[in-house]
Design goal:
Elements lengths: L4 E2 L9 H10 L18 H18 L5 E6 L2 H13 L4 E6 L2 H11 L3 E7 L20 E7 L1 E2 L4 E2 L10 E4 L16 E5 L10 E6 H4 L12 H6 L9 H16 L2 H21 L6 E2 L10 E5 L3 H13 L2 E2 L10 E4 L6 H17 L1
Parallel strand pairs: 1-13, 3-4, 3-5, 5-8, 8-9
Antiparallel strand pairs: 2-10, 6-7, 9-10, 11-12, 12-14
Helix pairs in contact: 1-7, 2-7, 3-4, 8-10
The structure holds pyridoxal-5'-phosphate.
Length: 358
């Protein structure tokens, strides 16, 4: 069977080896006589999977012992609520606005308390990440929130601020795309369905001491401490998604870890940005060069007719998910960790061919 060239924004491609392993273990996981999906989440077999996923993430992202690794549900979207609910108090949630997801995060915080906009690039349709010098943090900031990669606009932070304030990041669309200094952040969250596995599990990495500063009397499930104290087993976790996460993390480790993955990611991104930059404006990149994402490459074509033709022809050739989000228009190639280099090479060839005959 042919696999498609999957450039979906998420959920998206998983490593073929991971899918094959899951397939081979689907009905009988490690001689247990059952699937991971059928196991008690209180069983030793499941607990090993759960802890293994945490350990691998710790190893791959160099997460220190004073940080928790939590597996939650509700997607990154629920984190938009949980963060202010736990940490806003009487302070100000200071948000750096770099796209639609930052906006959604801010909107939830506004319902729960005071907020401020630390910086924004909205006036140029979010085509860049504000420079560190532009960021104005409210002096009563309870935390500063950033979105490390802007899935829709195709921009990415390439340097994170070192700050005294509590820095919180939505890393849904670029976690583990490169090595990371976790200690710059008090809390990081990411829906798994782009770089880490299937949808259904949200990873939270947070400093334990910071979690303890959360507001009192929160609804049990919305209090990070509930999950921290119970090793994310307070209630039934998304066990199959966590199992898949563990396989994806093993795959990353097998391929040399975050540094090696970053190299390939840069190579993939450069293949496409090079076409854009040498197309005499036929392909027009949305993001400013120094803010370009190595995960989501966004570009437009000279007109609507050519864009439609590009998308239709690409579909015929087996490319999936290249249509851009409606707020940017044009096209977007999401090239997360598991998108093979060969798929990006095929896309590059297609872009060059299309331009030549247009
Ligand atoms: C940067 C970012 N944050 C948050 C979300 C929302 O994630 P979820 O669907 O897991 O709630 C997405 C989804 O694409 C995203 O790209």
């Amino acid at each position: 069977m042919e696999r498609s060239y999957n450039f979906n924004a998420g959920p998206t491609a998983l490593p073929l080896d991971v899918l094959k392993q899951a397939q081979s273990e689907l009905v009988n996981f490690k001689n247990s006589g059952m699937s991971v999906m059928e196991m008690s989440h209180r069983s030793k077999e499941y607990e090993d999977v759960h802890n293994h996923a945490q350990e691998l993430l710790r190893e791959l992202l160099n997460i220190p012992d004073n940080y928790d690794v939590l597996f939650l549900q509700g997607g990154a979207s629920l984190q938009f609520t949980m963060v202010p609910m736990n940490f806003l108090g009487n302070g100000v949630g200071s948000y750096v606005m770099t796209g639609s997801w930052s906006k959604k995060a801010l909107k939830e915080a506004q319902k729960l308390g005071k907020t401020s906009i630390a910086a924004t690039s909205e006036n140029t349709n979010f085509d860049r990440i504000p420079s560190l010098g532009e960021i104005k943090i409210d002096k009563h900031a309870a935390y500063v929130h950033i979105t490390s990669n802007n899935t829709i606009y195709g921009t990415q932070w390439h340097e994170f601020p070192q700050m005294n304030q509590n820095l919180i990041a939505d890393m849904s669309s670029d976690i583990l795309c490169r090595p990371l200094d976790v200690t710059k952040f008090k809390l990081i969250y990411a829906g798994a369905q782009k770089n880490l596995g299937p949808s259904g599990v949200t990873v939270v990495i947070a400093e334990k001491e910071f979690l303890e500063t959360g507001q009192p009397n929160l609804p049990t499930m919305l209090d990070y401490r509930t999950h921290s104290k119970n090793n994310s087993l307070f209630n039934t976790p998304p066990s199959f998604a966590i199992y898949m996460l563990s396989l994806v993390l093993e795959w990353v480790k097998h391929h040399g870890g975050a540094e090696a993955i970053e190299k390939v990611n840069n190579e993939k991104a450069n293949l496409l940005y090079d076409v854009i930059d040498h197309s005499n404006g036929f392909y027009n990149g949305h993001a400013q060069k120094d803010s370009r994402s190595i995960m989501n490459v966004t570009f437009t074509l000279p007109n609507e007719k050519l864009t439609k033709q590009f998308l239709a022809e690409s579909k015929e050739k087996g490319f999936v998910g290249l249509n851009g989000h409606r707020s940017v228009g044009g096209c977007r190639a999401s090239i997360y960790n598991a998108v093979p280099l060969q798929s990006v090479e095929r896309l590059r060839e297609f872009m060059l061919e299309f331009m030549k005959k247009a």
